[in-house]
Amino acid sequence: MKLGIVGSGQIVHDFLSASSKIQDLELVAISTLARSKEVAEELAEKYHINKVYTDNQAMFADNDIDTVYIGVPNSLHFPIAKEALMANKNVVCEKPLVETSEQVKELKKVADEHHVLLFEAMTVLYLENYFHLKDNLKKIGKVHVVALNLTQISSHYQEFLAGEHIAKFDRKMGGGALMDMNIYNINFCVSLFGQPKHIAYLPTIQRNTDTSGILNLTYDDKQASLIAAKDAVGPTRSYIEGEKGLIYFDGPLNVLPDYYVQIGSEKPQHFDYNEYDHRMISEFNYFIKAIKDHNQAAADEAYKHSLNAITVLEKAQECLPDD
Question: Domain Gfo/Idh/MocA-like oxidoreductase N-terminal spans what residues (predicted)?
Answer without folding.
Answer: 2-119
